[in-house]
Write a structure and sequence with these properties.
The complex is a heterodimer of chains A (113) and B (114).
Chain A lengths: L3 E2 L4 E5 L4 E7 L4 E9 L6 E7 L4 E4 L2 E6 L4 E6 L8 E9 L7 E2 L3 E6 L1
Parallel strand pairs in A: 2-11
Antiparallel strand pairs in A: 1-3, 3-8, 4-5, 4-9, 6-7, 7-8, 9-10, 9-11
Chain B lengths: L3 E4 L2 E4 L5 E7 L6 E7 L5 E8 L5 E2 L8 E7 L2 E6 L8 E10 L2 E4 L3 E5 L1
Parallel strand pairs in B: 2-11
Antiparallel strand pairs in B: 1-3, 3-8, 4-5, 4-9, 5-6, 7-8, 9-10, 9-11
Classes of the chains: A mainly beta (113), B mainly beta (114).
Chain lengths: 113, 114
Amino acid sequence: DQQVKQNSPSLSVQEGRISILNCDYTNSMFDYFLWYKKYPAEGPTFLISISSIKDKNEDGRFTVFLNKSAKHLSLHIVPSQPGDSAVYFCAASEGTSYGKLTFGQGTILTVHP
Amino acid sequence: GAVVSQHPSWVICKSGTSVKIECRSLDFQATTMFWYRQFPKQSLMLMATSNEGSKATYEQGVEKDKFLINHASLTLSTLTVTSAHPEDSSFYICSAPLNRNEQFFGPGTRLTVL
């Protein structure tokens, strides 16, 4: 049972344009969401997070939007840069499960110069 | 940010042998650490929660006798894959939370069982 889903396995965008990565979840107990960037054979690197009490969080070029009623979140990267090319995972956690993360399948982002 | 290390970064072993992977939090103490496994082109799947001073908590479907976890100190957790088989070949990643909202991952260990 995949509780966190990233339905797009890959996304290709032009440098300078916006990248939008999507994530859906089914567990209504999730109350904290995170986005990680990962390169092959390396551990994930934290990008940005959002609590369920918010609907938007922004950090530089990265913005995460949360739509609780739709159980949907998205990561916007603008402007996209070639160095952003990587696999992006969304992850979710419940308040009662300290630090325990459920990951989506990941989306491969390729930013073309 | 905080640093989590893993050793070794890659290991090749023969079927039937045991392999130990270490996970260390270098600049903070972690009473809890997590072990994940990632198969090629798949998600990170949580295997178990490592608890300092007590038994690990395993996720459903993960054999505790096969994947032995020892959280010996506040900065070290070890995962031992016992009697490894080719289907255990995977990328193993540990993580340590600094707090509920900040969790740091190790660089991962690539295990190949021949």
